[in-house]
């Protein structure tokens, strides 16, 4: 029996682990919280858990050596640690995160050892790449030349669960959400490169329509320019943009949180004996209902007061983190108060708009592809399904010898995206396409 070792038993792990167990593979799960790993395996005959000290290279390699394919669902910064062990032990690896420079550094050695390190095989990144490349390659066979590309994606509470001032609940790692809010961005607009520093990430949100759900607020997602080369796009391309979707009001709220310094992770504090309200008064002065709007130069209605109060930052209770940065406090408060209640659904929404030129520029058409996936009440979230099922399918393909690619790879070739998207569609995870002529 082939064995898969999974590092991480977090929020998005269950669909992957259950898919692989149900498919007939042995699955070994390791997490710093062994009770969580035990719960995830659920006593399955082919499932087990294993301890691993991520600070000990020998411990990591010992666990890696037990698997035929290794899956890392750890925080992104730890993927190179697992990748190094995989290359040293001669094991394939699958990850849902972006390819980092450190990960890219394993490419030559992985190819030399006939290994695949498959990355960006989740939802964003992952399903976004695969679904876009399917359209781009299909239209190329019809003579279409891509001139414009935009892709939007967001993981959010379903409309009936949109009930707090943040208009957000956590369906994946809370810290990842907050750290991502501090990324700079780069994209192509009308043939020119636009670079947006982190301080302006939320400065000019777009409004994006999702059929039957309404309008959402969007902002740029990291470096869109790099995907021009990744997707092998030509010089005719004038627009290239990848963005994140949120409910309206998100960008103003996060812009204010950043201006207040609450996402800072550089300066550390000793919080012992200090209440949440005491910290806020220490930072901004009392009374905070007046000083915070004044600091931001806005009236109370436009300030983040309601959001901060909702997560308990104005309470006279002692701060839970004993020491740390302001981001640690914000993360702890948001984690405590922005959880899904039993029976609530999350949703994953994605929209691509691709503009093509045909017949030597005589005809232009826009193809819009929309994905809407909702979580299962009291079951798997939409985020977990769309992140981990593509990875699970790829693991199965690897174990069955159906992937020939080697080195550090992302799923932009038809040999990967066609079978994965086809299987996702059999699970009712797929896109609805519309086409319109624009000239």
Description:
With 439 residues, the chain is an alpha/beta fold. It has three domains: 3-118, NAD(P)-binding Rossmann-like Domain (Rossmann fold); 127-248 and 343-381 and 429-437, 2-Layer Sandwich (Dihydrodipicolinate Reductase, domain 2), CATH 3.30.360; 253-337, Domain 3, Saccharopine reductase, CATH 1.10.1870. Helices cover 34% and strands 24% of the residues. It has helices at residues 14-23, 34-41, 57-64, 79-89, 101-104, 107-112, 127-141, 174-180, 226-230, 250-259, 276-284, 288-296, 305-310, 326-337, 382-399, 414-426, and strands at residues 3-7, 26-30, 47-49, 69-72, 92-95, 116-118, 145-157, 185-189, 192-196, 206-210, 214-220, 239-246, 269-270, 323-324, 346-358, 363-374, 407-409, 431-437. Strand 8 (185-189) and strand 9 form a beta hairpin. Helix 1 runs parallel beside helix 15 (382-399) and helix 3 crosses helix 4. The model has no long low-confidence stretch (mean pLDDT 96).
What is the β-strand count?
A: 18
Tell me, briefly, the overall form.
globular
The CATH superfamily of the largest domain turns out to be Dihydrodipicolinate Reductase, domain 2
Given as residue ranges, the uncertain stretches (5+ residues, pLDDT < 50) are none
Largest sheet: 7 strands, parallel
Amino-to-carboxy terminus distance: 57 Å
Strand content: 15-25%
Number of domains: 3
- The SS-based structural class is alpha/beta
How many whole angstroms does the radius of gyration measure? 23 Å
Q: How many helices?
A: 16
Mean pLDDT: 96
Question: Which fold name corresponds to the CATH topology of the largest domain?
Answer: Dihydrodipicolinate Reductase, domain 2
CATH A-level architecture of the largest domain: 2-Layer Sandwich
Range of helix content: 25-40%
CATH top-level class of the largest domain:
Alpha Beta
Largest beta sheet: strand ordering: 3-2-1-4-5-6-17
